[in-house]
Write a structure and sequence with these properties.
CATH topology of the domain at 5-99 and 207-260: Rossmann fold
CATH architecture of the domain at 5-99 and 207-260: 3-Layer(aba) Sandwich
CATH superfamily of the domain at 5-99 and 207-260: P-loop containing nucleotide triphosphate hydrolases
Number of helices: 13
Number of strands: 12
Bound molecules: iron/sulfur cluster
Distance between the termini: 28 Å
Structural class: alpha/beta
Length: 363
């Protein structure tokens, strides 16, 4: 079965005054229908760049796609112009960001913002293009007018829209949704705002939801609730999820499959069980050994020595070589390819490739 979204050999660079930075280096990843894939790695490893490239939101310039394809339902998204891309972004592929306060409009009530999203979805279902829907909203041709266009104090969500707006909030288990629709974003807690963002994204019934560090700004209890909710909604709304996180515990709780990124490369990918029970790449092993388990007392956590390489430098070999306790001669000379080593488990490391170096990326 073809993947819902397939990224092949994606290379993205950023121009900066200090030199060109390769943020993604021939990254390949697939997401299947109704699957939750988590991309994990340290800050700056390229996770968010990957997400932004998928949804066509890379800041160009300074970012530049140098190579690769992003195929969604058989269409190469990188070949689409800005107008065609808007037929996918926010509708078939939705995204929620780390800090919902900066994603929600501070001067519109929660109900207005959700009703607007529902209006666009309805118009699309009626056969109007996303762009046409947006133009009609801007020119006030929608009957009834978009509630957010009415003067403050006089906004009233139409009755039939109100029902759907409240239903959206109920879906993400917001208490007292009929009260919440009249609140402004600043009046809600971080967890509630993130639920609102999830409700808005899911109101579009997207085939793919990209969640970029959606729980980082939340306390542990709220984080667990939001993750559980996302997982449950996957089945209800029939959507796939790409979860970007630096927190291995988060990926472990909800993901079906995990891809580990390091310095712009995917170094290991596997189903979640094998990745945490039998990590193969030394970087994945290092990441896991840094996570406090809480089960054993007096266990000393082992941080990974060294730091991430300077991505302005073109490296020939494995990018982890300066930090790896198992580094060999070949590791500095060639870059290992991501290879199948077990069923549904791929790793890019010479420890798990052919000894003659035939799993190098340059072959
Ligand atoms: Fe370590 Fe070499 Fe494997 Fe890179 S390829 S992770 S340096 S053993």
């Amino acid at each position: 079965m073809a993947a819902l979204l397939s990224v092949q050999d994606l290379t993205v660079g950023y121009e900066s005054s200090a030199g060109a930075v390769t943020a993604l280096d021939s990254v390949s990843i697939e997401i299947n229908e109704n699957e939750l894939v988590s991309v994990v790695g340290e800050s700056g490893c390229g996770k968010s760049t990957l997400a932004l490239a998928m949804i066509g939101l890379l800041p160009t310039p300074p970012a530049r796609v140098l190579n690769g394809e992003i195929e969604f339902k058989g269409t190469n998204l990188l070949g689409l112009g800005p107008k065609r891309m808007r037929e996918y972004r926010g509708t078939q592929i939705a995204m929620i960001f780390q800090e919902p306060l900066s994603s929600l409009n501070p001067v519109y009530k929660i109900g207005d913002q959700i009703a607007e999203a529902i209006t666009i979805k309805r118009m699309r279902d009626d056969g109007r293009s996303v762009i046409e829907s947006e133009v009609m909203q801007k020119t006030h041709k929608i009957v009834p007018p978009s509630p957010s266009k009415l003067p403050r104090g006089k906004r009233k969500i139409p009755a039939e829209m109100k029902e759907d707006t409240i239903a959206s909030l109920k879906l993400v288990r917001i208490p007292d949704p009929d009260q919440v629709i009249d609140r402004y974003p600043f009046e809600l807690s971080g967890g509630m705002r993130q639920r609102v963002m999830i409700a808005m994204a899911l109101s579009q019934e997207p085939a793919l939801l990209i969640a970029d560090e959606p729980t980082t700004a939340l306390d542990v209890t709220t984080q667990a609730q939001v993750l559980k909710l996302m997982k449950e909604l996957m089945d209800k709304v029939k959507t796939s999820i790409l979860l970007i996180t630096h927190d291995l515990a988060v990926a472990c709780q909800v993901a079906d499959r995990v891809a580990v990124m390091y310095a712009g490369d995917i170094v290991e990918t596997s189903n979640v069980y094998d990745l945490f029970s039998k990590p193969l790449h030394p970087y994945t092993q290092g990441l896991i050994s840094c996570v406090p388990t809480g089960s054993k007392r007096k266990v000393v956590l082992k941080p990974i020595p060294g730091s991430v390489p300077d991505l302005r430098t073109r490296m020939v070999g494995c990018k982890y070589v300066s930090r790896c306790p198992y580094a060999m001669q070949v590791c500095s000379e060639r870059k290992p390819r991501l290879l199948d080593v077990m069923n549904d488990h791929q790793v890019a490391c010479f420890l798990h490739g052919e000894a003659d170096g035939s799993n190098t990326a340059n072959n």
